[in-house]
Amino acid sequence: MLHETSGFINHNAQRIDLNLENIIAGNYDLVVEVYNNEKVSTKKTFPLIFE
Description:
Shape: elongated
Helix content: under 10%
Radius of gyration: 13 Å
Structural class: mainly beta
C-alpha cells in the first residue's frame, strides 16, 4: 500500500495530520522526506503498527 501526500510545511509547523482511514491491520513504514531551501533532502522512516 502506498499513500503519498505533499505540501508546504515551514519550520514553525509542530503538527501534521495524516488521514489514515480504512487501514488494514499490519506493520507499515511511514517515510518522511523533507527538503530545505537549498533543495537538500533528508529522509526518516518510522514504523507503524495497526492492530
